[in-house]
Structure formats: C-alpha cells, structure tokens
Automatic annotation (TrEMBL):
<keyword id="KW-0809">Transit peptide</keyword>
<dbReference type="GO" id="GO:0004361">
    <property type="term" value="F:glutaryl-CoA dehydrogenase activity"/>
</dbReference>
<dbReference type="Pfam" id="PF02771">
    <property type="entry name" value="Acyl-CoA_dh_N"/>
</dbReference>
<dbReference type="InterPro" id="IPR046373">
    <property type="entry name" value="Acyl-CoA_Oxase/DH_mid-dom_sf"/>
</dbReference>
<feature type="domain" description="Acyl-CoA dehydrogenase/oxidase C-terminal">
    <location>
        <begin position="240"/>
        <end position="385"/>
    </location>
</feature>
<dbReference type="GO" id="GO:0033539">
    <property type="term" value="P:fatty acid beta-oxidation using acyl-CoA dehydrogenase"/>
</dbReference>
<dbReference type="Pfam" id="PF02770">
    <property type="entry name" value="Acyl-CoA_dh_M"/>
</dbReference>
<dbReference type="InterPro" id="IPR006091">
    <property type="entry name" value="Acyl-CoA_Oxase/DH_mid-dom"/>
</dbReference>
<feature type="domain" description="Acyl-CoA oxidase/dehydrogenase middle">
    <location>
        <begin position="138"/>
        <end position="227"/>
    </location>
</feature>
<keyword id="KW-0285">Flavoprotein</keyword>
<dbReference type="GO" id="GO:0000062">
    <property type="term" value="F:fatty-acyl-CoA binding"/>
</dbReference>
<dbReference type="InterPro" id="IPR009075">
    <property type="entry name" value="AcylCo_DH/oxidase_C"/>
</dbReference>
<dbReference type="InterPro" id="IPR009100">
    <property type="entry name" value="AcylCoA_DH/oxidase_NM_dom_sf"/>
</dbReference>
<keyword id="KW-0274">FAD</keyword>
<keyword id="KW-0560">Oxidoreductase</keyword>
<comment type="similarity">
    <text>Belongs to the acyl-CoA dehydrogenase family.</text>
</comment>
<dbReference type="InterPro" id="IPR036250">
    <property type="entry name" value="AcylCo_DH-like_C"/>
</dbReference>
C-alpha cells in the first residue's frame, strides 16, 4: 500500500494540470500575453465589439511583443515553437476572437506563404515590416460563390507578356480593409498560383463589410480585382496548385484549435465567478446541483480540449509533424467545445448574460463565425470521414 502524500487539488481552471506540462518559456509567453490581454484588451473589448471597430493603435504593440509571425524563423520573427504560438492564440482569443483573427491572419495566412513559398526579394520586402506591425497583410482565397470549394475559384490570372492580369473577387477577407499587402490565389493556365499584391496597385479595391453580428472587432472586406496588372516577380515562385493555399489554412486552423479554447475559458471563468456571488433562494447559485453540473461539463470539456491542443502542438513541433486530418480533428472538436461553453455559461448568468458587461454573448457570436471559417464543421467532418472510410464524400 502506497504511503505517498496526496497530490494537491488541481486548479478549477486547469483540472488536468496542463500548465505543468509546459516549458518555462511556454509558461512565460502564456503569462505575458494573458497579462497584456487582461489589462489592455478585456476592459475595452465589449465597447469595440459594440462599435464595430478594431483598435489599430495596438498593432505596433503586438509587433513589439513578437506576436506577429511568431512561429516563423528569421526576418524579424520571434521563431518560437508551435505550442507557444498556439498558447498565445488562446490568450488573445480570451480577449476577443477578432484579436486572435488579426494575429492569425497576419502570421499564418499572409506572412507564412511569403516565408514558405516566396522569393528572397519578397521575403526581404515584406516580412520584417509585417513582423513589426508596420505593414498589414491579408489572405485572398474565399470567393462570393466559392467558399468551401476553392478548387472552382473564379478569380483568374492571365499572362500578358511578362506581366500578370488578375480579374475576380474575394469575400470575407479578414484585415482586407486595412491591409498593405494581399496574398491572392488565382486560377491560371498552369494551375492555382499565389500572388503578392500591394494594395495600392491600380485595379485593387477593398470594400469593408459592415453590419456584422459576429467578429465585430475585426476588419472584414471584399477584395475586387479589375484588370489588376502585376509584374512577373509578384508570383510566389515555390508553389503551384491548391497545396499552397491549403497549407496556409492548416497553419491558421492550428491557431484556431488553441484560440477557441481561450474564448471558451473566458466564458467558463465568467460563469464560475458569477455562480459564486449570485444569490438566489438564499444561497449562491453555485451551490445548486444543476449549476454545478453545467460548470463541471464545461470544465471537463475544456480540459480535454487543452490536452488535445497540446498534443497536436507537440506533434507539430516534432519530427513526425502534424497531418491536416489531425488539424481538422482539433479545429472541429475544440470549436464545438468552446461554443457549447459560451452557450451554457450564458444560461448560468440568465438575463445578465446578454449584457456586454460580461463577455458571453460576444464570445458566443464570435464563435459562430469561428465554427464555419477556415473550414466548416461539415468540411472537417468529411475530411475525417474520408480518412476513416477511404471514401471521398465531397462529391
């Protein structure tokens, strides 16, 4: 019979002790980003959401903190491991999904393809300023009529001498209205190609999409290309075909599978604190069985999501690497867990849950978009279904 001392009770916000599995550097990054979000973002996020504004003034700070393209090497990027990037995304999304989306699009969708597939000249021209927050990027793939089916995109790029002429449009583009550069994917005679497009190029227009009920603290736009002429060196030279944009989406989805948990945790912690102080029938509602059942389910689901995210992050940092199907697993599971936490937490707060004094409805509305962008539930389900059965159910 063991005489070892009883282990200390776990934290109510870390039931499985995931923090103890992190390195000292990973914990330091987590704490630094969390402190910044709690002091500079959370107090204002409700108003920014209500006003439908993104606080441009924070962008230089994000650059100074090394959060833009933080998992990339060189060119002024921080060069952290994948887990650190994921943890930073989690803390940013605890503030607001729009904040994490800005950082994720900048690093994983705009900087990553230039870093991975660009020429040395393209890297030198754009990456240092993007890492510092001096230049903003966006990613043009989704189209008005082709969201989940990029293989049938309508945007076309044709050769005209040594130049390229692009015509078409992209829709629901995060950072589009404030971007200095767009990584645009277009169909060509040689397959899908990526283009690095300065947004001041004649023929480029970015129209802001307003009247959104979700991701209101995020600048979203429609990109229109009207006989947009680019020089030959605007094309990303190291990739052809859908492999290029799909690899970028995997990078962004990795940030989401961590990030969504931040929004879920914020909802859980809000509900837990509220349940401890809200008095009904003569005692705190946290003392009632049904409230405890809700809190326990949220805590368990989020803890399992944290373990999943950390496991996938360790795979990404390992020699084995992370398969796209595993990214789909993480994105599908952890967004579901987080949106369930947002909805359940709202019920614990009752009528107060719809007030922007609390973050619950804001997170719930944001997560409705996170649920469908970077691959809908259906798309990720069919990705896993094809892996499991060997049958392609997309068509």
């Amino acid at each position: 019979m063991s005489n070892s001392p009883r282990a200390a009770a776990p934290s109510p916000t870390d039931l499985l002790g995931v923090r103890s599995m992190l390195s000292e550097e990973e914990r330091a990054i987590t704490d630094t980003v969390r402190k910044y979000v709690e002091s500079e973002i959370t107090p204002h996020a409700g108003q920014w959401f209500e006003d439908g504004t993104f606080p441009d003034e924070i962008i230089p700070t994000l650059g100074e903190m090394g959060l833009l393209g933080m998992h990339l090497e060189g060119y002024g990027c921080a060069g952290t491991n994948a887990v650190s990037y994921g943890l930073a995304c989690r803390e940013l999304e605890a503030g607001d999904s729009g904040l994490r989306s800005f950082v994720s699009v900048q690093g994983s969708l705009a900087m990553f393809p230039i870093w991975k597939y660009g020429s040395e000249e393209q890297k030198q021209q754009w990456l240092p300023d993007m890492a510092a927050g001096k230049k903003i990027g966006c990613f043009g793939l989704t189209e008005p009529d082709h969201g989940s089916d990029p293989g049938h995109m309508s945007t076309r790029a044709k050769k005209d001498g040594s130049d390229w002429i692009i015509n078409g449009a992209k829709m629901w583009i995060t950072n589009g209205p404030i971007a200095d550069v767009a990584v645009v994917w277009a169909d060509t005679e040689e397959g899908v190609r990526g283009f690095v497009v300065p947004t001041d190029t004649p023929g480029f227009t970015a129209n802001e999409i307003k009247h959104k009920g979700s991701l209101r603290m995020s600048k979203t736009g429609e990109l229109v290309f009207d006989n947009l002429r680019l020089p030959a060196d605007a094309v990303l030279p190291e990739v052809k075909g859908l492999r290029g944009p799909l690899s970028c989406l995997s990078e962004a989805r990795f940030g989401i599978l961590f990030g969504a948990l931040g929004a879920g945790r914020s909802c859980y912690e809000t509900a837990r604190d509220y349940a401890a102080s809200r008095i009904q029938f003569g005692k705190p509602i946290g003392g009632f069985q049904l409230t405890q059942q809700k809190l326990v389910k949220m805590a368990m689901d989020l803890a399992k999501g944290e373990l999943l995210a950390l496991h996938l992050g360790r795979l990404k940092d390992s020699d084995a690497g992370l398969a796209p199907e595993q990214v789909s697993f993480g994105k599908l599971n952890n967004v579901r867990v987080s949106i369930d936490a947002a909805r359940t937490a709202r019920t614990i707060l009752g009528g107060n849950g719809i007030s922007h004094e609390y973050p619950l409805m804001r997170h719930a509305n944001n997560l409705e978009s996170v649920l469908t962008y970077e691959g809908t539930e259906e798309v990720h389900t069919l990705v896993l279904g094809q892996l499991i059965t060997g049958q392609n159910a997309f068509s």
